[in-house]
Automatic annotation (TrEMBL), chain A:
It comes from Paenibacillus methanolicus. InterPro entries: ABC_transp_permease. The chain crosses the membrane at residues 9-28, 48-66, 97-119, 131-150, 170-190, 220-241, 253-270, 275-297, 303-323. This is Simple sugar transport system permease protein. It is found in: Cell membrane.
UniProtKB/TrEMBL annotation, chain B:
It holds the Pfam family Peripla_BP_4. The lineage of its organism: Bacteria, Bacillati, Bacillota, Bacilli, Bacillales. Residues 38-48 have a biased composition (Low complexity). GO terms for molecular function: carbohydrate binding. PROSITE patterns: PROKAR_LIPOPROTEIN (PS51257). Belongs to the bacterial solute-binding protein 2 family. Residues 69-324 form the Periplasmic binding protein domain. InterPro entries: Peripla_BP_I, SBP_2_dom. Residues 29-53 are annotated as: Disordered. It comes from Paenibacillus methanolicus. Keywords: Signal, Sugar transport, Transport. Its main location: other. This is Simple sugar transport system substrate-binding protein. GO terms for cellular component: cell envelope.
Length: 346, 350
C-alpha cells in the first residue's frame, strides 16, 4: 500500500507543494487564514490561486502539446496578443457600460488565439517544421504583433465588466479560478472520457505507428496546438483583465518556460506519450507558491532567481527515480557495509 | 505530394513576411531604421560631401539618432519630443529604433558614420560595450551625444555630453518629501519599496537616492523591498504579498508609475484606501500615474521628463558651432503632489 502511494505520479509533486506551504506556515502563522472581506475570501491561498490561474491554464494546454511530443514556445506571445486585442477593442468602444462590448472583445481575442494556435499546428503538421522552431517563429514575431496592436504603449481600460474576468469574484472566490476549473474539466473530459486522450498519447509515443494503425496523427496534433492557443488566449484575458491594461512588451513574458516547467514537475515527459493534467496543475501551483513565498519572506531581488533555481533543482532531483535510487544506495553503503558485502557474495 | 510542398513554401514565405511586418511594427511611428538607413547613404551623401562640421554652418544639420525602442509610453513621448524638436530646429533627423538590442544600435551608429552625419545622438540600451563604435565615430570626426542613459566608458572624450535625468536625484526628491512629511512622527513609519528591474540604472539609483534621504530619520524604516520589474502586473502581485506579510504598511515607494498603479489595485482589494491608509510615492509622472495622483491615490510623484528634445537640439547646435558644452546636462524635472497633479493634468503631453 505504502509503496503504491509513493509510486503514484502525484506523490512527489504533492509532497513538494505541501513542504512549501508548511514552510510558509512556519514563517508566517496566519498564512492559511482566510478572511471574508466585502463578501470575498481574502488571504494568501486565494492570491496563489488567483495569480496562478493564467499559468495553470497555459500549462494545461502545454501538457497536451507536450504529450504529442511537441512543444509550444509561443504561448507567452499569444498571452500578450490576446490581452492587447481585448484591451484595444474595449478602449475603442463608445458605450463602456455595454456588456456586448466586452463580449465582442473577448470573442475577438479567443478567435485570434484559435487562429494563432491553428497557425502553429499548421506549421507543425502541414509544413513539418519541428515544433520548437515552428512555435519559435510566433514567439518572436508575436511580441512584435502585440506591440503593433498596442502601438508600443500600455493600453489602460476602465471597464468593470472586463475587469471582472481577472479580478472579480463569484461565490466568494476569484472568478478566474472558475474559468480554470472549467477548462480543466473540459480538457479532462475530452481526454479521459473520449478516446482523444489515448490518441494523443499514442501519437506522442510514435506518430508514424499511430498513423499506420489508422489514426489521423496530423489532425490530433493540429487539435492540441489549437487548444493550447485557446488556453493561452484565455490566460491573456485573465492577466490583462486583472490589471485592466495590456502591456505588449511584458505580458506573459517567459510564460512558456514556466508552463513547460509546470508540465515537467507534474510528471509528463518531454518525450511525449503519457500525460498528467492534475500533475500539471500541481506543478503550476508549486511555481506560483514559490513565487509568493519569495515575496513573503523578503528574499532580496538580486538572489531571487538563484533561490528559485535551487528549489526547482531540488524538485527535479526528488522526482528523478535514478537519483533517489543512487541516494538510497549511498545511504545503505554508508550504514551497512556488511550487508552490502553479504548480498554481493550471495 | 508535390502541390503540398508548394504550400509549404508559400507558408514559410508568409512566415517571413509576418516576421518582417512585426519588426516594422515595433518601430511605432518611426520613419526609417538602421538597415534602411544604409541604403539611403547614396542619396543623402552628396548633400553632406563637405563632410565634418565646418560645412554645417550654412547647410542643414543632419542628426543621426539611435533610439532604444518603443517599450513604454515614456519612451514614445521621448521619441516624439526628439522628432518634433528636430523638425522645429530645421535639422534633418535620421532615426533608428534598436528594439532593445545593442547590436542594432551599433549597426545604426555605424551607418550614421558612413553617411557622415553631423552629430550622432543615442540612448544606449546597456551601459557597457560602446568603446569600439564610439572610437570609430571619434576617428570619423563626428561628435556623439548620449541621451537618457549613460555609458561606462573610461574615456570621457568619446562623447561630448550626456543629457538625461539624474535618477539618484529623483530618488532623493522622493526621500526628501517623505522625510519632511514624517519629520515630527513619534511612531515608526513602515515603508515598502517596489524596485525596478533588478540591476537597471534607474532601479539602483532611485533606491540609493531614496535611502540617502531617509537615513537621517531612524523612524523611517524600509521593511520590505522587492522587484516589480517596472510592470503593473508584477507591482500588483508583489504588493499583495507585502500586504499579507506585513500588517502595518504606512508608505509605498514605487520606482515607476506602472508598479504603483498595480499596487493601488492590490491595496484596494485589501480593503484599504490608497493615498490615505497607505501613502504612495512614485516616479515618472506618465499620464495614468498623473490621473491616479489627481484622484488622490498617489500622494507624490517625482517627474522623470522624457521631453528632452529641445535640450538635445540646443546641444547639437552648440557642438556644431564648435562651442564648449557641459559634460553633463540634467533634464529639467519637477515633482507633483496630488493638488499639483490635478492642475497639471490637462496640459500634460504624455
Amino acid at each position: 500500500m505504502g509503496g503504491k502511494l509513493v509510486r503514484h505520479h502525484l506523490f512527489w509533486p504533492l509532497c513538494v507543494l505541501g513542504a512549501l506551504l508548511l514552510f510558509n506556515l512556519l514563517y508566517s502563522p496566519d498564512f492559511f487564514s482566510l478572511v471574508l472581506r466585502d463578501g470575498n475570501l481574502y488571504g494568501s491561498l486565494i492570491d496563489i490561486l488567483n495569480f496562478g490561474a493564467p499559468l495553470i491554464l497555459v500549462s494545461i494546454g502545454m501538457t497536451l502539446v507536450i504529450a504529442t511530443g511537441g512543444i509550444d514556445l509561443s504561448v507567452g506571445s499569444i498571452v500578450a496578443i490576446s490581452g492587447a486585442i481585448a484591451c484595444l477593442s474595449i478602449s475603442k468602444g463608445t458605450d463602456q457600460s455595454s456588456i456586448m462590448l466586452v463580449l465582442t472583445a473577448v470573442g475577438a481575442s479567443v478567435l485570434l488565439s484559435l487562429v494563432l494556435g491553428l497557425w502553429n499546428g499548421a506549421l507543425v503538421t502541414v509544413t513539418r517544421i519541428q515544433p520548437i522552431i515552428a512555435t519559435l517563429i510566433l514567439m518572436v514575431a508575436g511580441r512584435g504583433i502585440a506591440q503593433l496592436i498596442t502601438s508600443g504603449q500600455i493600453i489602460t481600460v476602465s471597464n468593470p465588466n472586463y475587469e471582472y474576468i481577472g479580478a472579480g469574484s463569484l461565490a466568494a472566490l476569484p472568478f478566474s479560478i472558475f474559468i480554470v476549473a472549467g477548462m480543466l474539466v473540459l480538457a479532462s473530459l475530452l481526454t479521459r472520457r473520449t478516446a482523444l486522450g489515448l490518441f494523443i498519447e499514442s501519437v506522442g509515443s510514435n506518430a508514424n505507428a499511430s498513423r499506420l494503425a489508422g489514426l489521423r496523427s496530423r489532425t490530433v496534433i493540429l487539435a492540441v496546438y489549437v487548444f493550447c492557443g485557446l488556453c493561452a488566449g484565455i490566460a491573456g484575458l485573465i492577466l490583462s483583465a486583472n490589471v485592466s491594461s495590456a502591456d505588449g512588451n511584458n505580458a506573459g513574458l517567459w510564460y512558456e518556460l514556466d508552463a513547460i516547467l509546470a508540465v515537467v514537475i507534474g510528471g509528463t515527459s518531454l518525450n511525449g506519450g503519457r500525460f498528467y493534467l492534475i500533475g500539471t496543475v500541481v506543478g503550476a501551483l508549486i511555481i506560483q507558491t514559490l513565487t509568493t513565498t519569495i515575496y513573503m519572506i523578503g528574499v532580496p531581488p538580486e538572489i531571487t532567481l538563484v533561490v528559485k533555481a535551487f528549489v526547482v533543482l531540488a524538485v527535479c532531483l526528488i522526482q528523478s527515480e535514478a537519483f533517489r535510487k543512487t541516494l538510497k544506495l549511498r545511504w545503505k553503503k554508508r550504514h551497512y557495509p556488511a550487508e552490502q558485502e553479504v548480498t554481493r557474495h550471495a | 505530394m508535390r502541390p503540398k510542398k508548394k504550400w509549404g513554401l508559400a507558408l514559410s514565405l508568409a512566415v517571413m513576411m509576418s516576421v518582417v511586418t512585426a519588426c516594422g511594427g515595433g518601430n511605432g511611428g518611426n520613419t526609417n531604421n538602421g538597415n534602411t538607413g544604409g541604403n539611403e547613404a547614396a542619396t543623402t551623401a552628396p548633400a553632406n560631401n563637405g563632410g565634418g562640421n565646418a560645412a554645417a554652418g550654412d547647410k542643414k544639420i543632419t542628426l543621426g539618432f539611435a533610439q532604444v525602442g518603443a517599450e513604454s509610453g515614456w519612451r514614445t513621448a521621448n521619441t516624439k519630443s526628439i522628432q518634433d524638436s528636430a523638425k522645429e530646429a530645421g535639422y534633418e533627423l535620421k532615426f533608428s529604433d534598436a528594439q532593445q538590442k545593442q547590436e542594432n544600435q551599433i549597426k545604426a551608429i555605424r551607418s550614421y558614420i558612413q553617411q557622415k552625419v553631423d552629430v550622432i545622438a543615442f540612448s544606449p540600451v546597456v551601459e557597457s560595450g560602446w568603446d569600439t563604435v564610439l572610437k570609430e565615430a571619434k576617428d570619423a570626426g563626428i561628435p556623439v551625444i548620449l541621451t537618457d542613459r549613460a555609458v561606462d566608458s573610461a574615456d570621457k572624450t568619446l562623447y561630448k555630453t550626456f543629457i538625461g535625468s539624474d535618477f539618484v536625484e529623483e530618488g532623493r526628491k522622493a526621500g526628501q518629501w517623505l522625510a519632511d512629511k514624517y519629520k515630527d512622527s513619534s511612531e515608526d513609519v513602515n515603508i515598502v519599496e517596489l524596485q525596478g528591474t533588478t540591476g537597471s540604472a534607474p532601479a539602483n539609483d532611485r533606491k540609493a537616492g531614496f535611502e540617502e534621504k531617509i537615513a537621517a530619520n531612524p523612524k523611517l524604516k524600509v521593511i520590505a523591498s522587492q522587484t516589480g520589474d517596472f510592470t503593473r502586473a508584477k507591482g500588483k502581485e508583489v504588493m499583495q504579498a507585502f500586504l499579507k506579510a506585513h500588517k502595518d504598511i504606512d508608505v509605498l515607494y514605487a520606482h515607476n508609475d506602472d508598479m504603483a498603479l498595480g499596487a493601488i489595485q492590490a491595496i484596494e482589494a485589501a480593503g484599504l484606501k490608497p493615498g490615505e491608509d497607505i501613502v504612495i510615492i512614485s516616479v515618472d509622472a506618465v499620464k495614468d500615474g498623473m490621473q491616479a495622483a489627481a484622484d488622490g491615490k498617489i500622494n507624490f510623484i517625482v517627474e522623470c521628463n522624457p521631453l528632452l528634445g529641445p535640450q538635445l537640439m540646443e546641444a547639437v547646435q552648440a557642438v556644431v558651432d564648435g562651442k564648449e558644452i557641459e559634460a553633463r546636462i540634467v533634464t529639467e524635472e519637477t515633482t507633483f503632489t496630488s493638488e499639483q497633479a490635478k492642475e497639471a493634468l490637462p496640459s500634460r503631453q504624455y
